[in-house]
Design goal:
Length: 157
Amino acid sequence: MAKQSKTNKTLAENRKARHDYFIEESMECGVELVGTEVKSIRLGKANLKDSYAEINNGEVFMCNVHISPYEQGNIFNRDPLRKRKLLLHKEEIGKLEAYTSQKGYTLVPLSLYLKNGRVKVQLSVAKGKKDYDKRDAMLEKAAKREIDRQMKERMKQ
C-alpha cells in the first residue's frame, strides 16, 4: 500500500486577490475535474488570475479559472475556461450565500493545492478594496520593509 503524504502542495495561487480584496473568511473545498485537467494542474498549468466563484441553484461554480489543455490528452481535453463545480456541504453553501447577498462581498479562489492526492481549492469570502486602501497597504508594506532593513543593519554593528 502506497503511503500518502500529509503535506499540502500549492499548485496555483491567486496573489492579486490579497491585493484587491479584504479576505473575510476562507474554507477548503473540492473541485469536480476530469482526468486531463488534474494532470495539467499537477504540471502547474493552472491560472487563478481574475477568477471568481458564483452560486447558482444551490451549487457553487468556479469561473474564469484557466487550466491549460493537457498535451497528451487529445480528445479528452475540455474547454480551458469552463465553469467547474465546487464540492461543499449544504450548510457551507448556505453560509456563503448569506455572505454574498450582502453588498460588496464576493467569492474568490485563493489557491489550488493537493491534499492526499486530491485537488482542493481555498475559497474565500472577500470584500473589494478601494484604491486608497490599496495605496495604504503598499505604504504599510514599504514601511515594514524599511524597518526590517534598519533593524538588520543595527544587528550587524
